[in-house]
Each structure stands twice: as C-alpha cells, then as structure tokens.
Amino acid sequence: MEVTITNSSKEKLDYEFHGDPTDTSLLVIIGHGVTGNKDRPWAIGLAEAVAEAGFGALRFSFSGNGKSEGDFKKSTITKEMKDLKAIVNAAEEAGYHKICYVGHSMGAAVGVLSAVRDDRIELLISLAGMVDTKRFCEAEFGDVTPEKGHMWDDENCPLSQEFVDDLMKIKSVLGKTEKIEIPWLIIHGDADDVVPVEEGREIFAKCYEPKHYVEIEGGDHVFSGDALDQMSNAVVEWLREQQI
After folding, report:
1. What is the residue extent of each domain of the chain?
2. Residue 121's closest CA among 130, 129, 112?
3. What DSSP string describes 11-63?
4. Helix ranges, the chain (H)
5. CB 208 within 8 A of CB 182
6. 10-residue averages of pLDDT along the chain (244 residues)
7. Are the CB atoms for 151 and 35 separated by under 8 Å?
C-alpha cells in the first residue's frame, strides 16, 4: 500500500507496509500501546515475521504518536478507534479481502472495542492487552496530576485530563467480549509489569470460541529478547490456521 491515510480529524497517519502489495487476501494491521509508535522493536519484528510467512502487514502510529500528525494529549482509546477505522477504510479501498488487527497494550483495548463495532475486522489478536482501563490509569498514573505531570516521567508524553477521563469512563473492556465472535488470539507474558498476566487470563476465560491463548514464560510487556520470537511464531502459526 502506498496511499496517504488520514483520520476523521484530517491528520495524516504514519505507517509502514511489509509484504507483497499485489496479494490482497489478508492484511495484518499492527497497532501499538501507550507512548508507543510503529517503530517499536516488537512491532517491527512481528511485521517482518508476518511478511516472511507470506502475509501482508501494516504497522502504524496512532495520531499524536511517532511521526503521525495530531496532539499526543488527545491520544485516547476513543480517538484511536477512529484512527484504526481510517486504516481499515484504506485497506478496504485497496481491495483487501480479510483484515486482522493486532493490538498491543492499550492498542489491544482499541481492538476489542473496534471489533465490536466494525465487522470488517475478521481476526483479532491481543498482545499484552489492557483490559481494566481504570486499574491501569490508577496504577500507572494515580500519583500524576493531569495537565501538569507526564507519563512515566517522559516530558514528551504529557498526561492529559482527556486521556484520564477516557480510561475511567471505559473502566474495562471485559464486558464487550460477549459481542465478539470472530477468531481471537490472546498472547501475554507472565512477567508483564504493566498489564498483569491475570488480565490476559481473565479476558480469555470470558471470550467466546473460536479463541486461543498463549502465555510466554518470562515474557515482559514489550516481548523483549527471546519472547519476541515466541510471540511472532505464535502469531504466524495462528494466522496460518485461520487461512485453512
């Protein structure tokens, strides 16, 4: 794909395509988490593995993140759902017949809520997926004053009241699982210190078939080291199963 993609706010979204552009059978769209972007090592590694397996992959930065246009302070789950919709729209216009969305951390919450609303997403993958948004906000940023402080002391990532309010309003994506009936792969590392592995186990227990769960021993939140290969291999194997 070599098109300009803009969201509903007319902000250009930065993306990178991997694979054969003439094969429109399946596109794997990869979205990142809080303070992330499309160029995180796990995202690049996964996209390369997916492309090597013969599938098209597109990793992108949500608006306000990385090189995408927009204001970081407005990078809420609710707005990122609109970003994802813009990417899916572009994929549909490019003629792709099936869409798989892979979301990491908060990007996984975006995926759950988007899959409920958009039936063009036919396959869903959650990596270290955020489930309890209220808990996350309180645990990670409870001691930070919105509009004055920053996420994880990063001056490039100001904590906005809009971001906090959105997480607190959503509370949890757990209640949406009953509305998702597409194939769903959930991968979580048991050493994740940002989104506890218990959240991955919990949402897997609640979601409907067809579903699959992979827990990576020693895997951290960003699938560092050997965990990246284990995660990528699990994704590729599952995608191949869905294509049978």
Report:
1. 15-132+174-242
2. 112
3. PBPPEEEES-TT--S-EEEEE--TT--TTSHHHHHHHHHHHHTT-EEEEEPPT
4. 41-52, 77-93, 106-117, 133-141, 161-170, 197-206, 226-242
5. no
6. 93 98 97 98 98 98 98 98 98 96 98 98 98 98 98 97 98 96 98 98 97 98 98 98 80
7. yes
By CB atoms closer than 10 A (0-12, 13-18, 19+), residue 156 is: exposed
What is residue 243's predicted lDDT score, i.e. its pLDDT? 74
According to DSSP, the residues that pair with 102 across neighbouring strands are: 30, 125
- Reduced to 3 states (helix: H, G, I; strand: E, B; else coil), residue 212 is strand
> 41 and 222 in contact (C-beta within 8 Å)?
yes
Q: What CATH class has 15-132+174-242?
A: alpha beta
- Region label for 140, one of left (φ > 0), alpha (ψ between -120 and 50) or beta (otherwise): alpha
For residue 128 the two structure tokens come to 């270290």
CA distances from 26 to 69, 83, 146, 198, 242 (A): 27, 20, 41, 31, 11
Residue 51, Cβ density class (10 Å: 0-12 exposed, 13-18 middle, ≥19 buried) = middle
Cis ω on the peptide bond leading into residue 210 (within 30° of 0)? yes
